[in-house]
Here is the input.
Amino acid sequence: MLTSNPSPRSLSLDDVLAFESLDGSHIPILDVSPDRKRIAVSVTAGLAGLPSSTRPFLWGADRGRLHIIDVETGSARIVSGPDGAGITSPYWSPSGKLIAAIAAHRDWVRLCIVDPDSVSVETIADRDVAMEFEGQPSLRWVDDDTLSVLVVPAGRRAAGIESARSTIEAAPKAWAAMQVGQHSTGNRLTVKQGGRKRPPHEQVTVSLVDRSISTVTEPNTAHPGVAALASDETTSSHPDVIDTAMRPTDRQLWHDKATDERMVVARGNTGAELLWLRGHERWRTILRINGHLAGVRIGRAFEVQYELPGGRVTTMRCVLPPDWREGDRRPAVMFVYPTLDRAANPDAPLLVEGPTFIYNAHLFAAQGYVVLDPDLPFDENTDGDLIDAVATGAGRALDAAERAGIIDRDCVHVFGQSAGGWAVMALLAKTRHFCSGISLAGVSDLIALHGQLDPRWRYESRHQAEFHFADMCEDFFHLSRPPWQDPASYMRNSPILFADKIEAPLLLMHGDLDYVSIAQSEAMFVALSRQGKPVEFVRYWGEDHVYASPANIRDAFGRIVAWTQHHSAR
Here is the structure.
């Protein structure tokens, strides 16, 4: 296991932005050569030092650095794609002479071929690969000279790129056309019955002999590799799977069931290791990342159990400042996100190498705060409205932290993003537990959310008509019917309608290209400012739901720290 190496140096945002990742949750990142002598694994580089922002909904693929590792010697050759593209989803050819992979750039996602000996990279064709981000590969070898690949339709781009660029590119053109006044900019929007459809893709075969591309019309009668890709089946020849039963500190990336050999990621507070296990015994350490954490002083992290109404027992993760001493009652920051199932990722808040960006508990602990991260489960059969269950759960969690003797109950800030931002506003409206709140990309009005279309596709009718929030709004917030059938439920769970009850200062942050409309934060800002209540609203132009610009991440974190310090000193 990785061991701790305390040091006077505190964890900084630079440390967090430098985090590398071995995360195959969204796309396969590792494959073993047929002779078991080499491993190809994609390591997602951190945000620190990048020349530009990334595409957040490429899930790190555009920052992938392909490592080709000799199992016997441990030596590694690192491969980057052309024009700074990342490389991910490596897949050895049957003979082991080549690696097929996906090269992901800010502006394209293409099939590429890597020569593991010369580490040369060649992109193939001019069609974007359809990355499904569901742990399944988008390509398979048919034989040493042929690949089967899922691509997006001609003239389209991968969804993770198109969503980021569509409005940015189309809006200025539409506005300019309106100013010229020679052509109508009217756009008719219709919605086909039957709901949203899966984004289309096409299956093709690619010949490496002549670089030709052929459309697959009857995959079920073709080579088994082609048929398997068409049906999204995972074969034993490419066992890149995530075992959700394993705790994330030991995340499995590869498993050969015949020999019971597996590749797992062991994470700790001084970095992470990629281990090759035989049975349950460590055979080799393949790779180490995030060694810079060895010089960071870390506070104690632990769990506290507390009881919800009805006798249900749940858990809160706590992280103490590195200089905390027994008997200290410190200012605290409570992270909130309702209904989140921690069972799939229970250790993340406890590890330094947990969430990147600014949702890192140890990063706030390094600023002197006790960090509380409670489970806020919801049982729609017994809990009534979600907003009340969140208020009750947060109060019980604070009681537990106070009994543990770790917090100053009069100085607790509440922080959340997305549905967590909704929870921040809800908690300020429904309780007097917090001295301030910080809401990022939050929701204030559920009726408005239910009827919202995705602003990222505003200038693309084929997507705009299909992507709405009605189903998500009803499912996540446990609203059984649409607002025209049950308006009272939406009103009871919308913080905007309780803005007159909010007394604690509120910091709102939102990107103007967020798929959760910035109007949600605008509405709360207007409601509070008209009442003369303490509120601040920071807008990040060009940002989506998760900030992609390192400059904006730094700015946001600096503002949050300054905000909590100011409102802790009152």
Summary: The longest helix spans residues 159-180. The domain at 295-445+494-568 is CATH 3.40.50.1820 (Rossmann fold). Residues 231-248 have pLDDT under 50 and may be disordered. The CA atoms of residues 46 and 239 lie 27 Å apart.
